[in-house]
Amino acid sequence: MNRYETFVVRLWMEDDSAVRHGEVRHVTTGKELRFLQMEQAFDFIESIATRQHQSAEAPDNSDVSPDHRQIDFDPRQSRG
How many CB atoms lie within 10 A of CB 19? Predict the structure, then answer.
């Protein structure tokens, strides 16, 4: 059975187009990660996609590196 996961990625860029920092949010669970390196975003996405594939429950991301700062997304809060 095919499936897909949806993520929203926001990047803050320097004038020279280098990524300064960013955040990625898993739309289904609302789990969010702020990152300084793109590899952290890829690891976060992979951890959720792998866990979602293995279990129907929402991931707790306990296997995500502790240097990843996770926050819960509240759609009622305005984002700038």
Answer: 14
Q: How open is the CA angle 22-76-36, to the nearest 5 degrees?
A: 10
Question: 31-66: string of b/e by CB count within 10 Å (b at 16+)?
Answer: bbbbbeeeebbebbbebbbebbeeeeeebebeebee
pLDDT tens, residue by residue, 49-59: 888 666 554 44
Tokens standing for residue 48: 């959720």
Instruction: Please tell me the number of Cα atoms within 13 Å of 27 on its side-chain side.
Output: 6
Six-digit token string for 18: 């280098």
In angstroms, the CA 69 to CA 29 distance is 16
